[in-house]
Amino acid sequence: MNASTSPADGGWTDLLQQGTGPVQQSFLDLVKNTREYVGYHPNVIWGDLQTPQYAEAMLRLVVGFHEIPDDIEAGVAARTARAQYIGQNGRSYHVLLGEQALLTNIGGADVMRGQLQHLLKATALPGLTLGIVPARAPLRIYPGDGFSLFDDHRAEVEGYRGAETITDPARLQVFRKAFALLQPSAVYGQDALDLIKATIAST
What is the pTM of this model? Predict the structure, then answer.
């Protein structure tokens, strides 16, 4: 989701009212200045790996729900621009997707098929470690919201209410602990590829 409103000061709601463009540009600025990213996305594909078609379908849902200005083109451009930083200048990304993220129907079968094909190719990106938590995998922690950790000192949690920025060290530790408990349930490498391919075959 930088604009005149500071998200760290609780300005996400005001920023969102300007449309998807300012929000996504602010997230792009955050990604540009991040060296180490850790994130868990249980229900949808991580924003940095979304295709333009998937991102457009997702943002149209956001515009409709929040009744904000329809500036989809600007929002899609800023969101998909995040991918350029993966593997650049030593940046590292460790991302966990829930298997449900592969199945949640955003944009219809053609959009989902293209998104999953893109995800297959993305597993080879330098600096990216991608794990998938199978739906039937035993969990060491109860299910919760998705979250993103930026350089281990800022968390972003998104939901129907918008995005929440967390910088308090004690609260950040909760997300570090959650990720550490989720990670053993994930599959990586060929096992992750096989899971994506099986989903494509059934799409």
Answer: 0.92
